[in-house]
C-alpha cells in the first residue's frame, strides 16, 4: 500500500510541478517555458558510459582487463542486433516510441495493480527512466529520486533520439556477475562477442536485467531459461517471431562458457599503472596528486588500450628463476629486464611470490648498491675524464682519507694492480682513490645523468664510491643506468609504448630522446671491464655460453645485506637484487650466489 501511495503521489505531483515551474519563472513581462527551466536545471554532463580498458603485451595479446567494479565493453550502434531492441521494448516499455520519457498511463496501471495486491506487483519506469537512473542517479528507493528520474528522463528524450536512448540502455544495464552492457555479458557468459551469439543466446541474456540477482545465469539457470521462453512467446504474440522460429529458438541448447577475467603478470602490471600516471601527468601538465589520480581514473573509465613492451616468455622465465633460486626463508629477490636497443622494459619481478597490490621490489625498493655503483660513479667517469688504458695501475693497499678508511673485502691488501684487475675483483680502495682523483662532484655529475630519484646532497662523499648512499636506488633505476654501456647513450626505459582509445587513435605516448653520456671509447673500455668480471672476476658463476657478448658487475653491501648483479648481452640488460625486506645479514647464503644464478637462468635461453 505504501508503494502504491508513492506512485499516486508522484502522478499528482507532476501537474503541480509543471504549474510551479511555469509561475515561479514568470517575470514582469516574460516567463521561461517548462523546457527552458528543465534545460537550465537538469545538466546531462556525463553520458559517456565507463568501459573496460585493456593492457596488451608486445605481441598484442591482452594481459589485463582493467576495471574496478564495472566491466563494460561499448557495442557500436550498428552492431546491436535489432532483436535485442525489440525484446527490451516489448518486455520493459511497450510505449517507448510514443512517450516523452515517462508514461503516465503505465504509472496509473501500476498504481491500480499495486493497490489491488497491497504490494509491488508492477513498476512504472520506462526504458528512458532506467537509463537516467543508471547514468545520473542512484538506486535509492525514495520519492525524491523517482521525481528526479522522471525529469532526467524528460531531458534525455529532448536531447537524444529514441534509437540512441535504447542503444545507451542496452550498453548500460546490469547482467549480474560484474557484467554491464550486452557485449560484456556475451563475453562473460559465452566467451564470445554479441554478434557471434545465436538468437537463443541473445534472448537468454535479455532475460537477466529485469532482476539480475533472481535471474543470475550461473546460480539460477532454470529461472533464466524460463524467462527466456516467456520473452520468446511475447515476441511471437507481437509478430516479431513465427511460431516455428520460436520453437526452434526454445529448443536451441544454452551452453555457458564463463570467461574468467584476464589478469596476468601482476609484477609488470603494477609498474604499468605507475607509469600510466606519470605519462598522463606529463602529457597534460598535471602536478597535484589527487588531480592526477582522478584524471587516470577518468581515462581508464573511458576505455583505452595500453600497448606495452611486456615479453610474457621472459616474464615467466624471470619469475621462475627467482623462485627456483631463492628457497631461503624471508629472502626476497627482484629482477628488471630491459631491451637496451630501444629502452623497452620487457619483464619485471617484484618478489618471489609477488601478488597484486603488494610492495613491488623491482621499482619501489631503494637499497644500497654496493660495488654495483662503481661502473657508473667511478670507472666510466674516470675513463671519460682521463682516457686511461686498462693497464694503468692503481694502489689497492690500505687507505685513509681524513677519518674515512675503507677496506677491501676481507681486509686484504693487494698493492699496485691494473684497472682491469681492480674492477674485475671489485677492490674497494682503488675505487675510492680513483673517485678522489677526479673529484666527487665530477663523478656525481655523470651519475645525475640518470633519474635516480633518491639521490641527495649528503651522498656526494667518497664512501659513495663503494655504495654508501643515504637511500640508494631501485633495481629498475640501476638496471636502466647500465643500458648506457650498450652504446653510450641513455633513454629512460619505459613499459608503455602508447595508449590509444579502443578505435586505435593515439592518446598518449612517450616522446623522449636518447642523450649521450659516454664516449664511444669509454663504452668500449667499460664493456671490456664488464666482460672480464664475468669471465674471470667476481661474476664467474654467471657465465653463459653461445652469446656474442656478456658483461656485468656484482655488488655486496655492508654486513651482507644485499646482493646485486647487473649484466648485459648484445640486446638485453638485466638487473638482479637479493636481500630481506627488513635489511639484515644474509651472509649464510653467499656461497649459493643466488643473484648470479638468477641472472644466468634468465639469460641462458
UniProtKB/TrEMBL annotation:
**Domain spans labelled Penicillin-binding protein transpeptidase:** 333-569
Q: What is its EC number?
A: 2.4.-.-
Q: Which UniProt keywords apply?
A: Carboxypeptidase, Cell membrane, Cell shape, Cell wall biogenesis/degradation, Glycosyltransferase, Hydrolase, Membrane, Multifunctional enzyme, Peptidoglycan synthesis, Protease, Transferase
Which InterPro entries does the record cross-reference, listed alphabetically? Beta-lactam/transpept-like (IPR012338), Glyco_trans_51 (IPR001264), Glycosyltr_51/Transpeptidase (IPR050396), Lysozyme-like_dom_sf (IPR023346), PBP_transglycosylase (IPR036950), PCN-bd_Tpept (IPR001460)
Question: Mainly resides where?
Answer: membrane
Q: Which residues form the Glycosyl transferase family domain?
A: 63-233
**Molecular function terms, GO-annotated:** glycosyltransferase activity
Cell compartment(s), UniProt: Cell membrane
Pfam families recorded: Transgly, Transpeptidase
Record keyword Transferase present:
yes
Quickly give the catalysed reaction: Preferential cleavage: (Ac)2-L-Lys-D-Ala-|-D-Ala. Also transpeptidation of peptidyl-alanyl moieties that are N-acyl substituents of D-alanine; [GlcNAc-(1->4)-Mur2Ac(oyl-L-Ala-gamma-D-Glu-L-Lys-D-Ala-D-Ala)](n)-di-trans,octa-cis-undecaprenyl diphosphate + beta-D-GlcNAc-(1->4)-Mur2Ac(oyl-L-Ala-gamma-D-Glu-L-Lys-D-Ala-D-Ala)-di-trans,octa-cis-undecaprenyl diphosphate = [GlcNAc-(1->4)-Mur2Ac(oyl-L-Ala-gamma-D-Glu-L-Lys-D-Ala-D-Ala)](n+1)-di-trans,octa-cis-undecaprenyl diphosphate + di-trans,octa-cis-undecaprenyl diphosphate + H(+)
**Source domain of life:** Bacteria
**Signal peptide positions on this chain:** none
PANTHER family in UniProt? BINDING PROTEIN TRANSPEPTIDASE, PUTATIVE-RELATED, PENICILLIN-BINDING PROTEIN 1B
The name this protein carries in UniProt is Transglycosylase domain-containing protein
* Originating organism: Robertmurraya beringensis
